Amino acid sequence: MRITQVENIDSEAVSKHGLPGFVFAEQTLYEQEKDNVFAKGWASIGCAQQLKKPGDIMPVRIAGVSLIAIRNKDGGIGVFHNVCRHKSAPLVDGPCNKRTLVCPYHKWSFKLDGELMGAPRFYGSENKPISAEDKADKGLIPVRFAIWWDIIFVNVSGDAQPFEEFIKPLDELLAEYPHQDMRHVSSTDYSGEVNWKLAVDNFLDGYHVPFVHSQACSIESALGQDDLFLSDDIVGLRLPHGASSKPAKTAKQLPHWNGLAEEKRGTQQWFGIFPNTLFFVDPCWVQTIVVKPTSVAKTDETLTIYVTSDEAASDEFVEERTRLSDVLNEVNQQDIELLDKLQHSRTSSVADQGHLVQAWDQVGMAFHKMWLSKMQAK
């Protein structure tokens, strides 16, 4: 059985060759991942600034369940299971803005904070409103969540370590960046015919960037990358002078982070936060990619771009923000096209004879070992 093969995958072999090809194509493993990887960990579902107005609702599927993130009337965020408390009909099919949520099945209605408002004819022929006592245990089921750098993380199982502990190594590394000043530029959805792990691995592969994305990075710049191993769940890469030595993305310079030290004004850093959060910090912008597997060989992504201040979000820099968004989306589209092809070649048995390169592949290999550790855990 395939599961026996996963249990017997040797960590040293992963260090040399990466994960074997079958783990990117096996349906039974994908079903296991829903519990072992996505439900038990801190998985991202989207970004808070995608929910711009009270009543904005964003549905998403993760860990095999359907969730909704809601901007409530007070401006806060809530995350709930996307199921009515009567017979579990889905409340929302797509992004929308609502004052209340009404189940399409039996018209039970819910406030934006999840509280049950009403249930028509709850008492049958006795036509009276549902009582406060009967409402009390019938609100939407909340999901444990946290918001960090505008990214909404959820823990579906409810028993992961506290989010503050989970994210602490990265939080400390980026402490000097005033991330509360970030302003949303764009969010773009993608879909690829590829296993989600290959999408994450690609993001953590600095080797391919100057060859596939020559508009974004020179080989001289890529040669200066530093590997970052922050925890058992967070890895990344740093280019100390990546921003200053790459081709210009905009006609004039977008403003830097307020208060950023001079020596950091050329530094780019990007991270994989296990399992599905891809995060890039530039001196002038931020990029987040939320990776959302929909089947063993299909993955949706949402790429969200930010600038670093109100000044950068002003009318003065409209053209620069447009150019930035165009370039970053062009880069992601190039990756999607490559990954669709890689899904076929990387899942063959011949791929198990590949060789990782010491100088370039240590961060991606660490991600492979994270996955293996979660899948082999008892």
Automatic annotation (TrEMBL):
GO terms for molecular function: 2 iron, 2 sulfur cluster binding; iron ion binding; oxidoreductase activity. Its cofactor is Fe cation. Keywords: 2Fe-2S, Iron, Iron-sulfur, Metal-binding, Oxidoreductase. It comes from the Bacteria. Residues 44-154 form the Rieske domain. InterPro entries: Rieske_2Fe-2S, Rieske_2Fe-2S_sf, Ring_hydroxy_dOase_asu_C_dom, Rng_hydr_dOase-A. This is Rieske domain-containing protein.
